[in-house]
Amino acid sequence: MTWGPTLSEDGTVFRLWAPDRNEVTLEIADGDAVPMTRDPEGWFSAKAPVNPGTRYRFKLADDLTVPDPASRFQHGGVHGWSVVVDPDAYTWSTLDWRGRPWEEMVIQEVHVGTLGGFASVADHLPAIAELGITGIELMPVNAFGGTRNWGYDGVLPYAPAESYGTPDELKALVDRAHELGLAVFLDVVYNHFGPDGNYLGAYAKGFFHPEVDTPWGGAVAVDQAPVHRYFVDNALMWLNEYKFDGLRFDAVHAIENDAFLDAMAAELRAKTAGRHVHLVLENEGNDADRLHPAAFDA
């Protein structure tokens, strides 16, 4: 993936798109700071001899350190340390699962926090399956400020909320659902960031179009290549690494870019071929042009 840490045999490579900055330093908890190298496009990178479980963050100035916007997990909330995660550490029990067709979907929406976290949701799944439900849709689980939230104020889309559980606990939830024949959808928010813990404006103002007004401020600049990849790679992470069966995209009318939606759908379809993967839009415009077998289901 373009964003976030990449593990290698002799350490971890860290990257940050910070075009508004000339210097960025990688800080390692209980380790030495590492100056990062900037390329002409504003990408900073550095390699450090660290393993999964290591806490890190980026220092932008003497008085400002920020988490990785593509952090896979946080320690200490959205203002705290990011944590290196091994995306392949979880051992799946349902590798042969290919999903269920759209016409079989009877979906129940689930708020993970009200059920007590990922492990507790997994414990409730047999009772949900007994109702005749064939799929569950988790409301957004991305990291947000505080410990309680509907999920729509998330600021770190790659990081499951710390108060809900760990990445592997979320994978175990999906695995258990598949054992019971349940498809699992995830609600994702790509049209805005919440107000608490969103540091992007401090180093990448080009992530947004301030001249394009939305209910949450300037529109997300999905026409910029790094921003486009940020969200498409996030969707691919949920579908392929976490093995979700579908995504519900929140309020896409506020993204105001149909070309981005179409390109994202085409890439997601190409990279999940052979599976029943379902893509659902919340779109106040009720735009039927986005709905066809090669794009979105509903």
Structure explained in plain terms:
This protein has 298 residues and is α+β, with helices and mostly antiparallel strands. The chain has two domains: 6-83, Immunoglobulin-like (Sandwich); 102-290, Glycosidases (TIM Barrel), CATH 3.20.20.80. The protein is 19% helix and 28% strand. Strands 3, 4, 7, 8, 9 and 10 form a six-stranded antiparallel sheet that branches. Strand 9 and strand 10 form a beta hairpin. Helix 3 (225-241) runs parallel beside helix 4 (258-270). The longest helix is centred in the C-terminal third of the chain and has 17 residues, at 225-241. The mean pLDDT is 96.
Order of helices and strands: EEEEEEEEEEEHEEEHEEEHEHE
CATH-level-2 architecture of the largest domain: Alpha-Beta Barrel
Question: Which radius of gyration do the C-alpha atoms yield?
Answer: 19 Å
Mean pLDDT: 96
**Remind me, CATH topology of the largest domain?**
TIM Barrel
Task: Tell me which oligomeric state these chains represent.
Answer: single chain
How does the helix and strand content classify structurally? alpha+beta
Shape: globular
Name of the CATH first level of the largest domain: Alpha Beta
Biggest sheet descriptor: 6 strands, antiparallel
Total E-strand runs: 19
Q: What is the total domain count?
A: 2
Which percent range fits the helix content?
10-25%
Instruction: Give the distance, in angstroms, between the N- and C-terminal Cα atoms.
Output: 28 Å
Corresponding CATH superfamily of the largest domain: Glycosidases
SS element count, helices:
4
In percent terms, what proportion of residues is strand? 25-35%
Enumerate the spans where pLDDT stays under 50 for 5 or more consecutive residues. none
